[in-house]
Each structure stands twice: as structure tokens, then as C-alpha cells.
Amino acid sequence: MTLTDPRSVVEVKRDGGVVSDEDMRDFVIGFGRGDIPDYLAASFLMACYLRGLSSAELLSMTRAMVDSGETLSFSGIDRPVVDKHSTGGVSDSVTLVFVPLAAAMGLAVAKLSGRGLGHTGGTLDKLEAIPGLRTDISPGAMERQVRRVGCVVAAQTDTIVPADRAMYALRDASATVGSIPLIAASVMSKKLAVLSDLVLLDVKVGSGAFMKTPESAGELAAHCVELAAGYERQARVAVSDMSQPLGESIGNALDVAEAVEVLRGERAGRLGDLAVIFAAEAAAPMLGIDRAEAGERAERAIGDGSAAEALRAMVEAQGGDPRVVDDPRGVLPKAPVRRFIISDRAGFLERVDAEELGRASAALGAGRRRKGDPIDPAVGIVFDPKVGHRIEKGQQVGQVHARREDDADRAAARVLSALGLSDEPVEELPLVHGWHSTDDPAGT
Amino acid sequence: MTLTDPRSVVEVKRDGGVVSDEDMRDFVIGFGRGDIPDYLAASFLMACYLRGLSSAELLSMTRAMVDSGETLSFSGIDRPVVDKHSTGGVSDSVTLVFVPLAAAMGLAVAKLSGRGLGHTGGTLDKLEAIPGLRTDISPGAMERQVRRVGCVVAAQTDTIVPADRAMYALRDASATVGSIPLIAASVMSKKLAVLSDLVLLDVKVGSGAFMKTPESAGELAAHCVELAAGYERQARVAVSDMSQPLGESIGNALDVAEAVEVLRGERAGRLGDLAVIFAAEAAAPMLGIDRAEAGERAERAIGDGSAAEALRAMVEAQGGDPRVVDDPRGVLPKAPVRRFIISDRAGFLERVDAEELGRASAALGAGRRRKGDPIDPAVGIVFDPKVGHRIEKGQQVGQVHARREDDADRAAARVLSALGLSDEPVEELPLVHGWHSTDDPAGT
Description:
globular, alpha/beta, 4-stranded antiparallel β-sheet, homodimer
């Protein structure tokens, strides 16, 4: 493994050529180890951004990222192991619902999660709003917990895909975040480093997502499926709507409370619908049942309380207060200031700038601008209507949970100015635009 | 001058937009000062490489580079001041001949030069082969010397165009050296930072040059003229042949000896021809005489000894041994080992890999692989034939001047393997492909 001059790798990509598997591997692993300087890697990333990556290059890059660190496998689990990841959205708590729901249906879920950044929330931040709950769980403890309660959500560690962490930081600093193949390599390297029987991915598209058009989301989904296929792993990838917040809560404690209510069958809506869809998409191939039967089992697990019990078992296993399942709003931290958001106009809700709602919530303290910033679990925004709903002037459309009065006023005003109302009736938005899978890579 | 986020400048270029004058200025000057990190500048340079630069952006970048440091002007000189630069070639000692020749013709030449790198020689290295000669000359001393003897060649200092030095190092390290607009900005920033009445540029093209095709050389020449025009300065830019060594010597002392012989009128050939062309191209507009008359004056200055005397005056003024003009091969350092290069084939010389000859000479010690490496002034290669010449088997085609026997053997073998011979007669190569000038930007 001698790389004469890593600049020659950059030159190949710069000139529109194809980087060999060996050169890509040496470059990526060398960068992860600190042997390739930042400036050379940055010029490489910009060349990748502007020239794109072939399927072979993308697989080489992803494989090198996976091999830059440890991989995780769970040998002692007799259920099918599924993993689930979202590219990030606003009020996107599907994972919080999906994980215990899938466990209640007889699947095993061993999931590594990250923290939120920018306008999107992170599963770890949400879970840690539950008093006492810990996410720093070793691989051995993860395996034991899955064997005992069927599911675990743990924090990504520094030993898994270290090259991705280094590369993500550099992409952010060198204006190369938005490249679709680079995003695919980043997302999939983390999924492929954990051995599971099925990877479920939710590629979000719309005003609250990183992918703003269905075309770019479809391209990302196709790349992710391609990478799973390159690893001979099963993957099912949804392109789902993020043109408006998925659920109603945008915060951390608020998100958990909503997820608990969905799991208890007390709250209908798009968040629960999407979690059920994912659970059914996982259960059908993994349990060898048909799709309709899988959907019914998911509904049943919510209706009979077994999904909520699976959450209780997971929370308890991770040191959290299990009463969060019985009385979420009693157990979770609460913000001192609450302010109703009152519509100053009437009309049919036509547009929601979901990213702006995410940023307004982050500005309250629910999110972080930079990695490592602290967050406030109690604050956030609740926004009830969905696109197509009729709103009257003076109607309460949501609530701000804030630390201070002036924060609350500002957030309420931001929410109202992020809405587009129409005099004409507006159609509701689809929930899922389509699926790509290793069985059907072209997608539907 | 507040730049909110320099990443936005990179994003504009990345997405094919046009960077504003102010943003370009802040970015380049910020980089030169160390405020913009290397990795962000590297990704910017790669975006510039792949997206190109508009005329306005190129002027903004160059202006910012010039303004990153001091500028030099010579107010007390009553002759027209001309500056001359070559993009670098093999056996390219035009500057050594041109500078005293132009001075002998009544022009003033105040030139800052650099050292050689890679396969091309540098004027400073060559001059410093003359015992005692110094090139660390302050701006005030440069001006005094020009007033007294008509010409000076001094070392580029750290205070002139510091952003170019930083950017060149980063381009080299990030595989973005070959971008034509970036080369134009680098070359012209150094010329525009010195106030002269005329800039003469020699853009080399061919196997021994950085520009390998006449198209890319023409593009570089056009950009350079455009930049001079943007500064309302006069420039004349030649695209000249570097498909074979220009002169016969490839070394430092060897180059000086050849240049002295040309200035004394003892040696005809392409090196002297090109120096005379440049001197005439400078004299005609600057002295207000026609081109034919200017050419005759140049030939006369060589024939009557005044050009050689101008060299003697310059060498003496810079502390060098003036006898180099009378007996160059007696005064200059000599290598202990000499080896004839004997052709092992017969035919018409069709191709010379001039870069390979440059590298073979550098490997003897005449050049440096990295900035700061020491060089050996005595060693080098002499190669006599030109493309089109007939070579017989067993004919002596040149000579290696080396420190050691095995070095000499290796260099002689490299020279022979860099030649392409043909059984059919071969045409000689043109010397100058064309000119671009601020009077005629489209070129001829």
C-alpha cells in the first residue's frame, strides 16, 4: 500500500477520470489517519462535488470509510436485526416510534444514532430528554440489551467510521456538503459498519430537508441502495415528504411526548402513519409475511399496548425513567413560558417553511448551531395544522414552549411568517413519494 | 470589509456563479494574511480550476494579489522601463541575453526573478553561477543601478505579492497548478506589482513547457494581455516554441557561458534569435522606431560589443567577476567529469522530449526538486542538434558535465532515449507561434 503522490489521485478526479479502488482506499484511509493533509482532501472533495463519482468509486470510497474503523456485529441475536435511519427533518420522530414498534413485532433493532445539527433534531437528543436515560452503551451491552428487550438506541462512537467524521467536518468547512454521492457515502458507511439483516432509510425531501427536490432525493436513495447491493446487504429506502413538519412537535421533550402518545394509540397522524409503514416494510421481508399482514400487525402492536411496553423496557434498560410511557408530560422537563400561536389570517394552509420552523425551535434552545453546543430539552414549538387544512383568523395553530417571554414572542412570529395561506382549497401532501430497494433498485 | 462566511464565496464559484470584486478581494487578501484556512482556499482553487474565472473575476483576483504586498516603482529613471518574463523552459536563457541587450539599446530593465523549480532553470540560479554576483538588492539600490548601468536583475522578495507565494504553494499542494487563469494571475500579479512601461512575456509551449498545446498557451497569453489592459499597462506576449531546448546548454554556468557567447556575437542560433526578437519588440514601441529598424539596432548592439559591455557593467554592479564577459568558461565553475553523448542511431531529428532533458540535467544537480534545495552551478547537459537536423550513428550530439562518472553515464543515456529520429527529412520548428499585445489582444 504505497501511494507515491496522493495529488495524482486528485488529478485523476479533477480531470474527469475514474479513481481506482486501491487509490481511493489509500486516499480515504490516509485522510482518516491524518496522513493526507486537509487542503489536499478539500480540493479532492471539491473535485468529487463537481465531477461526481462513478458507482465503482462511490463503493470504493464507502468501503474505505467503513474499513477506517471498527464494525459492529451482533452474533447472539436470534431475531432478524433491522437498522433504520433518516436523513433528517423537522418533527421527524419516526425512529422513536419505529424502534419499540418493530421490537414489539418480533424484530431486533440495534441502532446507533447521532445528535441534531442545524434545523433538524437528533434521536439521541430527544431520548436524553427522558430523565436518567443513557446512550453511551458499549457493543457488548448493546447486544445484551437487544437479546433482553429487543431494541437499543446508542450513541455513535469515535471508533466506528472515523474517516466519515473527519470527512464530514471537512465537507462542512470546505463548502462541499451538498454533493449527493458524498452524502450517500457518509450515510451508508455508518449503516454498513453495523451488521444488520435490513437497512431502512428515510430520505426526506422538501422545505425541511437537505434534499429540496424529489429528483435529488431519488438520486440519493438510488445511490444508497446501490451501496447496500455492493455490500450484498438488503436495504429499503423511502423518499418521504418533508415539505412540512412530519409530526406536530419540534423540540426534544415535546417530540418524546408525541412519540409516546403515538405508541399508546392516542394520537393519529402522519408521524404514526409513517412509523407503521416503516415497521411493515421491515416486518414483511424479515418475518416472511405479506405486506398487508405486516401492516395489521403493526397497528395491532400499537392497539394492544405491546409497542408502548417495548419502549418502557428499552427506556428502563438504558437507565431512563419508565414512567415516561405512562405520563410523558408529567415526567419530561417543562419550559416555564408557554405562548399560544394565533393565526392573524384565514385561508387554506398551502405552504409551510419547515426549515424555518426548525430554525425557530433551535433558536429557542432546542437545537445547536455547532457541534458540541448544549441544548435545552424542554423548549420547542408545537404546530398543529397540515397543508390542506383550513385555518381561521384568530385560531390557535400551535404553542411555543420557551425559557423567556421575548424568545416566545419571536418564535411565534417566525412560525406565522413561515406559513403560506390560500383562498382556494389546497390538496393534502403525499406522505411517501416512493421506495427504492435492493430488490427493485430503480424504485417506484 | 466584513466577510460573513467565506464559504459562501466558494459556494458561488462552485455553483458556476460570478464572485463579486469585493468578495474576491476579501478572500484572496484574507488567505494571504492567513485568515482563510488552507482547506477552504484549496476547495476554492479546485472550484476555480473546474469552473474557470470570468475576466472580471480574474482581474479582481490579480488586483487583490498585487495589493497583498508592496509595489515597486522607479521614478528617477529617464529611459523607458521594460520588464521581461518567461513562463519557463529548458535552455531558456533569453533573459540573460535580453537584459543587457535592451540596456545597450537605450531601454532600462529592472527585473525581479525567481529560482528554477522542476525541469526548468531560473535566471537567479544562472546569474549566481558567476563568482561573487549578488541578487539580494533593495528597491533603492535597484533604481540606482538602473540609472547607472541601465539594467538590474534582483531576487523576488517576500514583500512583493505575498498572496501569490502562499497561493502558489497551495496550488502545488492541492493539484490545482494547471489552471490557466490561476497561472495568469500568478504570472501577472508579479509583473503588475512592478511599475514598468512595457511588460514582455514569453509563454512557452511544447514538450519542455508547462503549456503543452498552442491553444492553452494562446489562452494564457490572452489572459495575461487582458490583465495588463485591466491595469492600463502595455504588454506584448509571445507564444514561443519549447518543443526542444531553446539553446544548447542546460545548466547554470553552461547557460551563462552560452549567453555571453551570444552577446559577443560568437554564437548564432535560436536563443540569440529570440532574444533579438524580444529586444526589437520592446524597442520599437518604447523608442518610437519601426520594427525593422529596432531589429537592426539589436543586431548592431551585439555586433559592436555594446551588449556585452552592458552585461559587464551589470555583473560588476552586482559584485560579480566582470571577466566572465571576456572568458566565461575560464571564470565560471567547471564540473570534474565530462562525457560526450554519442548517437547510437542515424536519422533526422524529429522529436526531443525537452522536459526529460531538463529533468536529466536537474538530476545531475543543476535543478531542484523542492523549493530551497541547493543546486550545483557547474553541472549540466549540452545538446547541439535541433529538430530537422541530420544525425549520424556515432556522431557526437552533446556533452554531459557531471560531478561523478555514473551520473554522467545515466544522463547521457537519458538524453539519447529522449530523442525521436526519422528516416524521412523533417522540417525545422517555428521559433515564435504568435504574439498577443494590449494593442492587439486577439493575437496573431
